[in-house]
Task: structure prediction
Amino acid sequence: MSVWLGILQALTLVAVLVVLYRPLGDYMATIYTSHKDLRVERGFYRLIGVDARSQQTWSAYLRGVLAFSLIGVLFVYAIQRAQAVLPYSLGFDAVPEGLSFNTAISFVTNTNWQSYSPDVTLGYTVQLAGLAVQNFVSSAVGLAVAIALVRGLMLRRSGTIGNFWVDLTRGVLRLLLPLAVIAAIVLLAGGVIQNFTGFTDVTTLTGATQSIPGGPVASQEAIKELGTNGGGFFNANSAHPFENPSGWTSLFEIVLMLAIPFSLPRTFGTMVGDKRQGYTILATMATIFVISLTALTLFELNGAGTAPGLAGGAMEGKETRFGIFGSTLFATSTTLTSTGAVNSMHDSYTALGGMMPMLNMMLGEVAPGGTGSGLYGMLILAVIAVFVAGLLVGRTPEYLGKKIGPREIKLASLYILVTPTLVLAGTALSFAIPAVRADVEATSIWNPGLHGLSEVLYAFTSAANNNGSAFAGLTANTPWFNTALGVAMLLGRFLPMVFVLALAGSFAAQDRVPATVGTLPTNRVQFVGLLLGVTIIITALTYFPVLALGPLAEGLQ
Amino acid sequence: MTTLSNTHKPASPDQHAAPHSSKPKKAISAGQLVAALPGAVQKLDPRLMWRNPVMFIVEIGAVLTTVLAAAEPFLGGPGESGGSAVPSSFTVGIAVWLWLTVIFANLAESVAEGRGKAQADSLRQTRTSTSATQVQDYNPETNPGAEGAQVRTISSADLTLGDVVIVVAGELVPGDGDIVWGIASIDESAITGESAPVVRESGGDRSAVTGGTRVLSDRIVVRITSKPGETFVDRMIALVEGAARQKTPNELALNILLASLSIVFLVVVLTLNPIASYSAATVSLPVLIALLVCLIPTTIGALLSAIGIAGMDRLVQRNVLAMSGRAVEAAGDVTILLLDKTGTITYGNRQAREFAPLTGVTEAELVRAAALSSLSDPTPEGKSIVDLAAERGFHRPESLAGDIVPFTAQTRMSGIDLAGGGGQIRKGAGSAVLAWVGEAGPVPEVVLAELTAEVERISRLGGTPLVVATGTASGERTVLGVVYLKDIVKEGIKERFAELRAMGIRTIMVTGDNSLTATTIAAEAGVDDFLAEATPEDKLALIRREQEGGNLVAMTGDGTNDAPALAQADVGVAMNTGTSAAKEAGNMVDLDSDPTKLIDIVRIGKQLLITRGALTTFSIANDLAKYFAIIPAMFAGVFPGLAVLNIMQLSSPASAILSAIIFNAIIIVVLIPLALRGVKYRAASAPRILGRNLLIYGLGGVIAPFLGIKLIDLVVSLLPGF
Result:
């Protein structure tokens, strides 16, 4: 029964995403190629002194991205430190330095890793003015960078790749804000709370007094999923009934997570003038998604042990209102995008099941990935795939008529290098530095042994890939993890952006070689297979040894 | 409307000249391997290895394991790795096979280089210093033949740009240059391998001589056009030896990708032990090195430079010299092929078939005029006109006095101004001749209409109409009629163009003919497009236009006229019979002077790229099997559960790791012949080629190591301790 229900959920999800693909994808293409500004946008441009018609070189665009994000980090850090004197702080104190640093970076980098329990740490001002704002803008920054890369592929002999401030503003005002409002209303209807009442003390049936937190949750929840952010209002995140009351709100939240990333290939296809290019990227993403979801669900349904046997699957850490399938679908969606919201505890999954969310992130979060970051991640992999296999047809490799020369391959390679290095170095350093290791073993790891290793590995994988979900058994609010994960998030977000924008500039400057029958076609089923192969071999194999030490060793015991 | 633009082509350019070029070489022989071995060992020098980062890593690994293997007996044998005991000969085994891996890689390069060495040696002999007779104070105005001029004898090595030398029969030409006076037959076999002598003469497009060739008859005065050490032969030697080989853009890009893959795996290996230490499963250094070497793309890293050298070598074997590897790569990317009609698409020698006099002109008049203007025309067309005229009763006069008006690509006509008021005769393209007649007065409408009809009739037949006109001493000029030159399309050319079309290459025929003739020939030959009544400027403009659209253009050329177009084209193949200007402008020289070879060059370019891609794909796909061999073996002692991943059922952890390393080394040797010979290229659409190659090198790359490692393991497991 539950299997059929699961399949029904999956089919509903697919149907909704299919319906959204064309209108949402084309709408985004219109947003980023339109020559008209809204009145409110014109006012905003005047305010910040930007000429909306001016175009930026890739380096100017990058400076915009970095400057804007730096200001974001400083601001979010400052208001956390100043929480004690801010209104609506619910009486919470200033957030400690290390945690403020980590949290500021976390939300600006679209990671939303939370080393703290939000419901007992942050007041409404920080939640709204700091975190919620970053939920919108960090997502819009990701979209802007992806669009800049698509423009690079689209333009011919151009020194510029668009205007960051315009892309950012349009992403927020024309896309994220309206969609988030609609989504928030739907969530409200679904029972998600929205108030400013702080804590309410209630007397329970047994007579005990319980303090029930309130807050503007629905508005946060909408952008949390839509912008693939994932930072929950409550510690339990989307497993909390105030954030995610029922099975259908859970499915709706999954739709929100996947809507933009899965529609971006359409935007790409429309912008480069070949919709089949978009379908190829989409097909690759969807294939990975289906394989990963199937594997995770099978692992969870077949969990070994007495309890899973009785429950018909591994129900530990999962909510009964979602069930196994509602949980695995959410887990797959949240880790294959850069969301990181959870409606079940990944730490409690079966060993091999717990490996899947990790593997999803290790793939680089490209299926479909975060808002923007998924598309540019996949396009980078396409560049590598074209380079390796493009030679096989006897031409120097080209993607969409752009030659992949030394400069392009250098940038794509550097992109590929960043996350594995951060993940592996971070995990290794946690155990290699004696003082750190002592602290990690004594304070952070709650489940010593193989599972403890997986927890640390998961943390760095999640941070470097800007996911933000956690293997819950790890106490990360320590100086080491706050700092190391903060650095991993920062570098994992912005180094790739540097390379993507440089690549965009390099592509834009090139002419477009016309396609002939001798050109490697990148809009066919064949290329889907190729891209899949490259994704798996280039990214997943990097992590094989370390997975063998953690979840694989644990699962195959 | 008609021109003789192509009449300066060699008489029979379609013959494959050098006999040694047609004989395919075997990819590799045991003797070659042995001969290359010393070179391979020499290349172990880290200063040389550094240039190949992937193999440099392997060499460092080899040094480390060697040191460990030597130290182990004193440290109490190899320690445990990943919780399992290691046989005492394990480290030695790894060290030996790592050294072999590096040597095999160097061997591939040495063998590739060795093939060019023989040719370089014979070329070098031609470079041996000869003496040169240098003319002092050469004056081209008063004494172009430098008869009795003051000369001095200097060494050919001391010749510089602009020097003028005299070369007489029996002497070697001391340096590259242009003949400024005289005509001579020259033996160029040292360079082209073709034993039949060629004629070189001053002026025109056949004035270039190459240093090291021998003058067989007559006396010539040559102006030196190259600096010492930068002659054609010097460049050839550098090219065939691979000394001048610079990494091409694509090779550079591939190297970057391989280096970054190596870095990723280096990170994987370096971080492994700290992480493993948490589970008390640390592995020993030799095992780590083995893992690293197996993961980094050694196969392609080892063969990459051999593939490049072999690609150049394949061109050399076909008597084509590429001035840079970049040009060979560009050849694979060519999307437009500009081909001269005459000599490439049609046989060079057009034959006069018919004299078509206009009304009021007798055939005899036309025959006489056409024949007289052709008497001093040495081209096959000219000769065929005289021959046909003789059949029609024309008698060759005892002597002919007059000024010859040579053909130029600009005037598109030639002729003769007879001495003693004998009048003028012009023959050539209709438009050009009509313009000439028009200078004297308007051409009557009737004549024009009849001429146009006649020209069109011949054009539709695919022939070249050659209009003949005369002028009297008093200034009257009349059109006499048209000579029909028949053009014959080469056999099999249509199939070759169809093949090119299947590769995604458009062919454009360039011809001086009018568009009617061009249409007929184009349809008959199956080219995609044509440029009719083309001047060199038109050709250059066409190339620019196509390049602006993003196309890569290849062309052949030999005349000085062609030089700008050759320089503009992405692949410009100059004929060896051509002028120095043309050879200088192009980025390849065809020693056989065979314009159809352009098609072969494109194939070789594609083959080079495919080979590179195939071995890269194969190399990366291999990683999958190696992982399944090594990962379960590495931690088998601590996590016996990982044995599930040992799907090859390898006998022991030590054997699994050693077998993977041995496979990694042996696969290089196995693939050397493929790297040298190149992957077979069949003209087909890109998706089909890709599908086929992915199946062979992608899927094959996944499967082959599973089988190979298993087989090697069966042997290794027989060793004591494994």
